[in-house]
Amino acid sequence: MFARFIAAAAAVLALSAPAWAADKGNLQTFRDVQKQVLTYPHYTIFDSVNAQIDNGVVTLTGKVTMPYKRNDIANRVAKLADVQQVNNKIEVLPVSQFDDELRLRIARAIYSNPAFSTYGSMVNPPIHVIVDRGHVTLEGVVLSEVDRMVARSIASSFPAFSVKNDLRTEAEAKAELEKL
User: Fold this and answer.
1) What angle do CA 128, 132, 135 make, to 5 degrees?
2) How far apart are CA 109 and CA 45, in angstroms?
3) Cβ neighbours of 43 (radius 10 Å)
4) CA distance 151 to 131
5) What are phi and psi of 134, to 5 degrees?
6) Beta bridge partners of 166
7) Distances in whole angstroms, Cα of residue 63 to Cα of each of 39, 109, 133
8) N or C terminus of the chain: which is more exposed, having fewer CB within 10 Å?
C-alpha cells in the first residue's frame, strides 16, 4: 500500500490532461516531465507545477516561490528528447513576508501533526502549501478522506483570507491514473 501511495503522490504533478491519455508516447513524455520536476533540487512543498502534453508540446502551469525556479524547471523539461516545445505558464508567487510566514507555519503544523508523520519523512512530501496573497491552497495526495479533512482543518486554523482544499485521496489519484 505504501508503494502505491508513493506512486499516487508522484502522480499528483499533472493529471489534468485526459485528452492525451490514449497516446502512450504522451504518457511516457508526461512521466519524463514529472521526473524532471520532482527531482529538481529546489522544488519544495511551497511550489506546485502541472503539465499538459500534446504531441511533444508541453504546457507548464502552476505556482513557484522564486523566478529562477520557473525558468529552471522549463529548461529541464525542454532538454527531454521527446519535447518539441515548452509553453511556460508557471506563475511566480509575489514576495510577501506574510505569505512566507503563513506557508511555513501551516506546513510546520501539518507535518508535525502525528497523523502526517509518515508524509513529512518522504523525499517529496505529498502535501503542498501554496500561499498567494494570503489565500491558501492545499494540493497533493493523501491516504484518506480523514487525512484530507484534518489537513484542511489545520490550515484553516491560521489567519488566511481563504483556504482551498485541492488534496485528493490515494483512491481518487489512482482512479485518475487508470483513466490514462
Assistant:
1) 85
2) 13
3) 21
4) 15
5) 85, 0
6) 139
7) 17, 22, 12
8) N
Q: What is the pLDDT of residues 1-44, one digit of tens each?
A: 433 333 333 444 433 443 434 356 677 888 899 999 999 999 99
- Placement of cell 505569505 in the chain: 99
Which pTM was predicted?
0.81
Amino acid at site 169: T
State pLDDT tens for residues 110-166. 999 999 988 888 888 999 999 999 999 999 999 999 999 999 999 999 999 999 999
- The single-letter code of the amino acid at 167 is L
From 122, 112, 164, select the one nearest 143 (Cα to Cα): 122
Per DSSP, helices labelled H in 39-169 are 67-78, 97-112, 117-120, 145-156
Q: Are 35 and 82 in contact (CB under 8 A)?
A: no
**pLDDT of 47-92, one tens digit each?**
999 998 888 899 999 999 999 999 999 999 999 988 999 999 999 9
